[in-house]
Each structure stands twice: as structure tokens, then as C-alpha cells.
UniProtKB/TrEMBL annotation:
UniProt name for this protein: RING-type domain-containing protein
Membrane-traversing stretches: 59-77, 84-100, 106-125, 146-173
Record bears the keyword Zinc: yes
Localization: Membrane
Domain of life: Eukaryota
Chief localisation class: membrane
Single GO BP term: neuronal action potential
InterPro entries: RNF121/RNF175 (IPR040176), Znf_RING (IPR001841), Znf_RING/FYVE/PHD (IPR013083)
Amino acid sequence: MAGVFEVEVDGVEHDHGLEHQNDANQFDLSKLSPEEKWRMEHAKMHAKHKGHEAMHAEMVLILIVTLVVAQLVLVQWKQRHPKSYNLVTLFQMWVVPLYFTTKLHWWRFLTTWFIFSVITAYISYRATRKPLACTTPRLVYKWFLLLYKISYAIGIAGYSVVMFTLFGINLIFRIKPEDAMDFGVSLLFYGLYYGVLGRDFAEMCADFMASTVGYYSASGMPTKHLSDNICAVCGQPILVDVSEEGIIENTYRLSCNHVFHEFCIRGWCIVGKKQMCPYCKEKVDLKRMFSNPWERPHVMYGQLLDWLRYLVAWQPVIIGFVQGINYVLGLE
């Protein structure tokens, strides 16, 4: 039966509702449940930090000021030098999780990260070669389009598991809420992380390939004339008419009357984040081209991706900088 005993930590008594013992300061921690151990640690932390309110307020002020200044610096950097900003952000998105997951021994994530890195490194190597092989653009867009669809499906599955857990549906299958929530959040993180990372790598590869093919330039006119039966993304002939149903893929015609392979234009617009014609730079009407709403780059989804980039790439750097300031000032 449960009794009551009190634990005194640095002169502060804490009632934990456990079995009473003669000596309130001595008991066997191994007999406590994880929740009771957490309560003990929580009580010790409160006792340790008692009377440090002024120091804590100073630390919070340093954190707020650093976050505001860092945000202003990042916004200015992105506006003035977007290429270097995107490159550094992509590198940090790729490397920062590796440090934390290695430290925490999350071998499942490290395995998926290694597989993704090997395949993407090979694809990126193929995309940056000059002269560009005729099969490379389709290979690149097929890989990143597949990765995009898989990550999207995993993200939706993770979100569904989280919502089902919040509504208590996991109890029907006798699954603990914490286990179901951990599984759902893990799936959601995997989907969003690899979705963002894949799209950023695809955008980099799209820039290299499009400039190499010659039908697209970021700031000027195309360096080649586009024939009616040539795809401006991969530079290969169009074999299926727009009005015909293709066996492997269809042919799409944009509002500017330029035609493209299905995989090429899907990769260019959805994965490579280029919402313009690769040849004449006219705005692409994705609502007309893709009827599936999940394939439309929605503004809200773009904001979510930007937030995730900031969270994964820059938040650890900012927090580390704040901890360095606190260490120099002697704040704990």
C-alpha cells in the first residue's frame, strides 16, 4: 500500500506520496519507478536553482536578443547573397543532424542518412558533369521525384499517427500513447527532413543541368534555339504527342505552348522548385498542369519547409552561440 514520505533536498521538503521510511533522506533509488525518479530529479533541480531568478531573467534576455539579431542577419544574407546562403544552409541541413544522431546513437537514422547521402552524392556528381550525358536529367529528376513522393507519404503517415494518438485511437490496438506518439513524430520528422533535403539538392542539380543543356539561363536569354519536338529540360526529343496517352510517360504543354517530357517538367516544377518555363521563363500554371492537389507547391507548405530549414540548420548554431555567451559571462 502507498504511504507518504518526505524527501529533503537542501532544506526543501518535497512530498512524493511514496512508502514512508524512518529516514526521509535515505532510500533505495532503484526501487523507484521512472516517473518517481523524474520527480526526484525535478525537485533537486528546483532546489538547485532557487534564488537565481535574476540570472535566469538575464539568460532569457540574451536568448531573445540573439534570436532577433540572428534572424535579421539571416534575412539580409538571404536577400543579398541567396546562392551562398542556400549552399551553407543545405550543407548544415545535411551535416548538423549527423552530429546529434551520432552522439545519441540513433543508428536507424544514421543508416537512412548514409543510404540517402551515397545515392544523392552519385546523382549530384552526374548532374554537375560537363558535357552532360543525355540520360542524366531524366535520371536525376526520377530519383528526386521518387524521393519526394516517398517522403511526402511518410510525412502524411506520421501526421496521421499523431492525430490518431491525440484522439485516443491507439488505445483500440492497446498501444501506449507515448509509443504511438514517438512513432508518429519520428515518421513526420523523416518525411519532412528528407523531403526538404531532397528538394534542395534537386534545385542545385536543376540549376547545373539546365545551364549545361543551354535552354535555360537564370539571368539571360537561352543559349540555344528550342525546336518544337525537343524538351528544354533534358534536351532530348519528344516522342509522344500531347494529345496521346504515353505508355511510360505523357507529354505536357505549358500555357506558353512549349512541350516537355512528363518526368522532366514534374521534376523541374515540383522537385526543382522552378515555377517557370525552362525556355521562356513564363509563369507555369501548376493548377492546370497537375490536377492532384498534393503535387502543388502550396505557399503554406513552402513556409513550413523554410521553418524546418531554419530549425534544423540554424537553430542549433544560434543556441550554441547563446550558450557560449552565457559561459563567458559566468551564467549557468
